[in-house]
Amino acid sequence: MKKATILLLALLTGMANAQTNENSLLWKISGNGLTKPSYLFGTIHITCDASLSDKVKKAMDTTEQLCLELDMDDPNMQNEMISKMMMKDGVTMKSLASTEDFKIVDEFLKAQLGYPAEVLNSFKPFMISAMLYPKMLACEMQSVEAELMKISQAQNEEVIGLESIAEQMEVFDKISYQDQMDELVKTAKSNLKRDTEEMTEMLALYKSENIEAMFDFTAKSENVMTSKYSDVMLSNRNNNWISRIDKIAKSKSTFFGVGAAHLGGEQGVIVLLRKAGFKVEAVN
């Protein structure tokens, strides 16, 4: 009897892990009072190939609106984002780096972005790092979110956001400005080599649709922005999103598109939605 119980527990654990770890970027959300299913899709913000699979297009056809991390068609988004890009309390990049390191960053930014560090001195260093993302690709940058929006607009459907620009930008005030600057210095000293290698590996994982490997990759990254601050960047936001996803999905069948790293792990959106009572199944 004891052996049978152990075997049953092992089987159940294996089944649970298999469901959680299944390789898929697209997940169907049902149950828990939903009259129509919604879908959850893991995006990647920049890529060489943003083409969408047939299963994603079909899910878009069956839903009534698109919900991304931000309301990407908000006409005020760009201005509001720019207003939140500066560090608080008069902190500058120059105050966070040695004279030698600031000079290295200055030469690097002039070469890569065409701007001296003095012009960007008050910007949050992570914002500058984000400007460098296209430089890490051996191609012209494409966006999965942009492709989703094209479909949504063609279907005359509304685009909404899970969080406000203020909420998303405040994340980078919760991450040490010093750590942000230290990472930018490392990027400059390696002339993007380390960051490009990580980007290449992440794109390969995304193509494999292995969401658990993508989550693990961010947790083990050499870049402390994702590894040290995974709670700020991922799990805290995931937990904030669940009640919002619940409310949105119950009001209208919705296609949710969030960064793929938000899907995996025990504090990932998939597990949290299941804990909230929803049935979440991989679409393959």
From TrEMBL:
Q: Which cofactor does it need?
A: Mn(2+); Co(2+)
What would be one Pfam family of this protein?
TraB_PrgY_gumN
The UniProt keywords, alphabetically, are:
Glycoprotein, Hydrolase, Membrane, Metal-binding, Metalloprotease, Protease, Signal, Transmembrane, Transmembrane helix
Q: Where in the cell is it found?
A: Membrane
Its membrane topology, per UniProt?
A: Single-pass type I membrane protein
The positions making up the signal sequence are 1-18
List the PANTHER family: METALLOPROTEASE TIKI, METALLOPROTEASE TIKI HOMOLOG
Which named protein is this? TraB/GumN family protein
